Amino acid sequence: MGITQTAPLVLLLALLLAVTSLSSADLYGNPPPPFAVKGKTFPPESTLCIDPSKSCFGQSIKCPDQCPMARPADPKAKACFIDCNSPKCEATCRSQKPDCEGNGAACYDPRFVGGDGIMFYFHGRAGHYFTLVSDSTLQVNARFIGHRPPGRTRDFTWIQALGLMFDAHTFTVGATNPAVWDGGVDRLEFSYDGAPVWIHEGHLSTWTSPDGKLEVERTARVNSVAVTLPGVFEITVSVVPVTKEDDRIHSYRLPDGDCFAHMEVQFRFFELSDKAEGVLGQTYRPDFRSPVKRGVPMPVMGGEDKYTTSSLLSSDCKYCIFSPVSSTAAEALMRRSDDAAAAWDCTGRMSDGYGTLCRR
């Protein structure tokens, strides 16, 4: 076939690609998924709860009109969340970023909201590591950064990184610290099993672990992600600086050339045991009674000596109970959910790991 004969075919192919690009469809004319199209209106998504151990088993739960999608294209829009073990079997709307007033939050310097809904501060120490959650199948540690101006007896501290251990795996997420803050530059860094992980910038860009279990999804173009291990946890993270206004209000007296970039975090746990430990984990126990003083501006939770660890990825604190061997039970549970999900023609990436997402 000569050049003159192939030219029309090349032109036709180029035209087809151009039309496809403009329409946001694929080569076969299929439309893009709803979460990929900003400004479009779609029918609310729904989830079929498939885990027999969950209270909503067998029910189809529909997202409300106020937040019809689990992954809206607009990073500022509320997302739909469905928990197949919720008392009312109803979907809820929530921000795609950490809610510093909600249960499981760890923000500011640092201020926690426990699983019991009670707010408290945990100071820790700059340059040290502390266990936030320790359970038989899950360990979550935090690295604290901080500053102690002259005349103070303790550090001002912030959470700079998280280290997670589950099954036989490790994962870290941390904030790099520039001298001057630029909100358009990504300051998140990740590792999985000791190897660096790179995630494309862009809202909804996603990385999945080699075994397909752990997922990290950007909830903004830069500096915000959601980290999910279905059926175990979901963690929303945003990197923020200590602003000049923060410095003025709280009298941090920060040195020049350091914006103390740190993380605002919110945890959601789905399978913590009644024996969970850690600065935050203990507050999820049914028998926990918060020792902090009520009605004071800064109720402080102690426990530095109980929850100090030697590194970001260690479980050697005095009260740590993490045991990788016991994670086989969690693996079996997730395998069972995966097998059940395979029987349904839905996409299964919306709820707490025990529901499958169905679009109308």
Characterise this structure.
The chain has helices spanning 3-23, 244-250, 304-307, 327-341, and strands at 46-49, 60-62, 79-81, 92-94, 105-107, 111-113, 119-121, 129-135, 138-147, 156-166, 169-175, 188-192, 195-197, 206-208, 215-218, 224-229, 233-240, 262-269, 308-309, 355-358. It has 360 residues and is of the alpha+beta class. It folds into three domains: 1-29, no CATH class; 34-95 and 350-358, no CATH class; 105-322, no CATH class. Strands 7-6-5-18-17-16-15-14 form an eight-stranded antiparallel sheet, with no helix packed on it. The chain has a seven-stranded antiparallel sheet with strand order 13-12-11-10-9-8-19. The protein has a three-stranded antiparallel sheet with strand order 2-1-20, with no helix packed on it. Strand 15 and strand 16 form a beta hairpin. It is globular and about 60 Å long. Residues 1-25 form the signal peptide. Keywords: Signal.
Secondary structure blueprint with pairings:
Elements (H helix, E strand, L loop, with lengths): L2 H21 L22 E4 L10 E3 L16 E3 L10 E3 L10 E3 L3 E3 L5 E3 L7 E7 L2 E10 L8 E11 L2 E7 L12 E5 L2 E3 L8 E3 L6 E4 L5 E6 L3 E8 L3 H7 L11 E8 L34 H4 E2 L17 H15 L13 E4 L2
Antiparallel strand pairs: 1-2, 1-20, 3-4, 5-6, 5-18, 6-7, 8-9, 8-19, 9-10, 10-11, 11-12, 12-13, 14-15, 15-16, 16-17, 17-18
